Amino acid sequence: MLAVHAFDTFLRERAIPFRAEAPLGPLTTLKVGGPADYLVEPRDETELADVFRAAWEGDVPVRFLGSGANLLVRDEGVRGAVVRLSRFDRRHGLHVQAGYNLAKLCKETAAEGLAGLEVLAGVPATVGGAIRMNAGGRHGEIASAVRYVDVLTTAGQVRRLSREEVGFRYRGTRLDGAIVVAAGFDLKPDDGVRARYDAILGEKKRSQPLGTHNAGCMFKNPPGGHAGRIIDQCGLKGLRVGDAHVSRKHANFIVNDGRATAADVLRLVDLIQRRAPVPLELEVLVW
Ligand code: EPU
Which pLDDT does position 155 carry in this prediction? Predict the structure, then answer.
């Protein structure tokens, strides 16, 4: 308790923007889950490094929240600090800060005739979150468009990592605890990019329940298969627990009809995993 108190005092004395007992549900696309002890929104790298150090010294756990699009927060919420890089939202050419909206970046670069990010059309994420998770789908993943990633060391220095050093893999990286503050992209001029962007976004609108409260694909695709098809073939579309149900449009999506709890969603996840003929691993992070 003493440590948490010291962290609280640090935030107040440094006037770092924060809220205590902040509900996280509204900051996620699924709209479920309890509060964070602290929601902290540092304004620059110095504040961010100081928050990180103060939390470390006080034994306060730290988590990073991006767009909250691939995240399921439990009803109990999370202890410690949740850091949101909402103020790291600038773009200078192809150098983009971690809090920048990825869907916006994909749309902008496609309009500029630059190819590489159109494969992620409509993916709800921040640039930092998309990099950490190596966001992607059938058309490609963010890794292929990354030139470098800037991470913050605990000493408050920015270190530039090459794409190889980031260690991208299926829906992940080797970044571990490192904090992504910005990334540089490698995009190629291409006249066909606008048409591809429109086609990919159109396909997504047709096949996914966009505009509902959901966390995107709940499960990773198992080797050689598609989680959506497998869940569909088990006849689980429409399966409901409380106010959560398996989307009828795409079976790898769970939709919150408005009043679902994290427990409803997790119960549905468990039912799907029990009935599927192959192991289905969550793609969505659970806090
Ligand atoms: N399918 C069904 N029933 C369904 C859903 C899908 O039969 O209810 C079939 C489709 O007809 C298709 C196959 O399953 O033949 C695969 O469809 P899907 O659209 O799910 O494509 P995917 O390759 O499995 C991946 C990503 C998606 C991403 C799309 C398009 C994963 C787990 N999923 O899906 O990512 O949008 O490619 O790029 O990697 C996400 O990460 O949140 C996500 C939705």
Answer: 74
Q: How far, in Å, is the centroid of ligand 1 from the Cα of 125?
A: 18
pTM beyond 0.70, yes or no: yes
- For 257-287, how does the pLDDT look when each residue is reduced to its tens digit (9 = 90+)? 999 999 999 999 999 999 999 999 999 999 9
Residue 80: what are its φ and ψ, rounded to 5°? 90, -150
If phi over 0 gives left and psi between -120 and 50 gives alpha, with beta otherwise, what is residue 260? beta
Alpha-carbon gap, residue 255 to 259, rounded angstroms: 11
* 98 and 70 together in one domain: no
Radius of gyration of the chain (CA): 19
Is the per-residue pLDDT at 109 higher than 70? Answer: yes
User: What DSSP character marks residue 41?
Assistant: -
Number of H helices, E strands in the chain: 8, 19
The torsion of the CA quartet 273, 258, 213, 70, rounded to 10 degrees, works out to: -60
pLDDT of residue 176: 77
How many structural domains is the chain composed of?
3
142 lines ligand 1 (CB under 6 A): no
What is the per-residue pLDDT for 3?
65
Q: Is residue 196 included in any domain, yes or no?
A: no
Residue 45 and residue 114 in one domain = no
pLDDT digits (tens, 9 = 90+) for 15-59: 999 999 999 999 999 999 999 999 999 999 999 999 999 998 999
Residue 33 shares a structural domain with residue 57: yes
Indicate if 78 and 99 belong to the same structural domain. Answer: no
Distance 243 CA to ligand 1 centre (A): 23
In angstroms, the Cα distances linking 126 to 86, 123, 269 are: 9, 9, 25
Range of the domain at 215: 211-286
Q: Pocket of ligand 1, candidates 229, 248, 253: which has the most ligand atoms within 8 Å of its Cβ, to mutate?
A: 229
Q: Which residues pair with 159 in a beta bridge?
A: 151
- Give alpha helix (H) positions in 208-248: 227-233
